[in-house]
Amino acid sequence: MQRSEVFRDPAVVEKLKRKIWAVSRKPVKIMEFCGTHTHAVHRFGIRQLLPPTIEMFSGPGCPVCVTDNSDIDHAIALSRVPSVIVATFGDLLKVPGTKGSLLVSKAEGAEVAVVYSPLDALTLAADNPSCRVVFLGIGFETTAPAVAASIVEAAERGLHNYYVLSMHKLTPPAMRAILDSRELALDAILCPGHVSTVTGWKAWLFLRDFYGIPAAVAGFEPVDILRGIAEIVRQCEGGVPEVANAYPRSVTPEGNGPAKEMMEKVFERGPATWRGLGTIAASGLAIRQEYARFDARRAFSVEVGESAVPDGCHCGEVIRGVMKPSGCPLFKAVCTPAHPVGPCMVSSEGSCAAYYLYG
Amino acid sequence: MSRELIEGLFVRYFANPVLLPLEDASLFRVAQGRVAFTTDGYVVKPLFFPGGDIGRLSVCGTVNDLSMRGAQPLYLSAGFIIEEGFALADLERVVASMAEAAGEAGVSIVCGDTKVVERRAADGLYITTAGVGLVPEGVNVSVQLARPGDAVIVSGTLGDHGVTVLSQRQSLHFKSPLKSDAAPLNGLVRAMLDTSPEVHAMRDPTRGGIATTLSEIASASSVGIEIEEGRMPVSEAVKGACEMLGLDYLYLANEGKLVATVAGPDAEGVLEAMRGTAYGRDAAIIGFVTSDHPGIVTIRNPFGIKRIVEILASDQFPRIC
Amino acid sequence: MCLAVPALITKIDGTMADAELAGNMTTVNVLFTPNVQVGDYVIMHAGYAISVMNSAEAEETFELLEEMAGLDAEE
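Above: the input entities. Below: the structure tokens describing the complete assembly.
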């Protein structure tokens, strides 16, 4: 798609930048809820393109960062069970738990396989009948349907050595928790483009109806992000708050029906513990009774010691947007990508890793 | 696999007067001057991939290490650690490939060793090479010699080898039109040094990619380096693969490329000389050396925003976020 | 958290399809995009297509942006 280069065209970026500068008068605090947005904003230097009236915040949108320490410890404990192969997205490999990480486990002889898709984990299970494959299910509404489908396929194929440790979470409850806490007095939300592809942009109507704040759904190219911000600024400057879809080539009002149905079929909502946010009702996806045999939480009883966050780690506050990475006393001095203390520095989508690259 | 069979292969493919008569040590004379000496181990998986194999990598890697100091590569050694059960036909493929690469580079493999280890102890095959070369008088190339005002030149497209090897991992279901760029660069370096005495620093951006190599030069020379994203030579296929897997080409390995700093006034001349060689056709000036921010490498994006290029703590993994 | 890229569908076989991105080929599961056709662009995430790119919307967006890019050149 050569034409797609237009989404990074410097001339278009410049035009959008000028438009935003021309319109923006009031101070505006915008939070994005998507690790990929955090990464893109930093990679493309979006913050440096915006006028001083606009302040960008990164919310709890990085699935690695919001995974609670106890869940990381659980995954590490599973990796130590003989004949278990832990299959995981690469993102989780280096995240420190209370003691060690999956990468450390791997170095100590545990079978930990990095996969790109839960389908690969299914293949691992099929190819290794004497092993039990546990797939680490992280991610929001974009990823949960794929993991759900893998469980259904495991059932259809009779793969009884495939399990999922579901750590999946839902985005709207996190948004509500952040807005309800009023820690930040946010003015607008930049909604995640690929979560919205699954949920539909109507999933964000509560921002207009309940909180009365502007929102825009944006894609991930620099032009997409700037268009989303431009739309938010337009609304803030005198338009009526609404949910604008600035990513219509992928996002529809209702989203992806088959994907949503698949999630419903396999998962049910339940409480989930989010790093930095505590336990939030109906914010996590647990595997339904019908598919219990694939649920790693039920199938394995592992000893997970007391989970503790390292001394001085402020990932929780960073995830909530109330502390900028540079405000954390450990940032750079102690906590670096080479020696991360918490997940915000490990994940390529974590705020701290993103800030680190800018010095 | 018997000792005789293995030796037979080496004799057939590496035959040269220094190697035969297969003594415990091979003897050769060197002219007076500075001898460059290097060694490396090769453990790449898979062993065979589009554009090359472990054998080609090992010869080119050692030839290139010598070349990065401005040395003319002369003689190589090759040690093989072979897993029991490794197919003789595969070993022959590797040895033939090494002979071809050595022939192209104009070097001889003059001594070697093999050990067979039990199953699962060597991933099939590991190769260690060492190499000697001669640095001509007056040639001084070192990562410590980059100077403010130097142009930073890269010899061609980045990330090809890294993406190729990743695409061979079954788990990624990913097929790329790309080939490894493994190549001997001594001819290219010769052309550069013949054009100008002001080639200051050189290194080949293998493991860790160009980001790591530039950081090493910046640190060793106590200079800053500023590069521009818009000038980096990267193929569409590498860009697409990086987008798909969530990788950054700055950190992907290259096995047939070099990065050099050249005094500003001589840069265009050296660039033109590079583009006239087989492995330098896509050479480009990507930035310059500065006295600002010593030890730090920055990259400017097409929107004019600069950011720091960090060294990665470990290898990149494909990601979903 | 949504690293997903647009890829061109070149072949469909049941729920699996071949997808191409700048010359790179991969496979993608199209279970969630049952109406996808060869020649469509899909957004791929973790091995699954999560949407078929709406060509009318894409076209409109392209035109709008290309106009923005072009206008600057004329200034």
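Note for the figure: Residues 8-63+171-237 of chain A form a domain with the Rossmann fold fold (CATH 3.40.50.11750).
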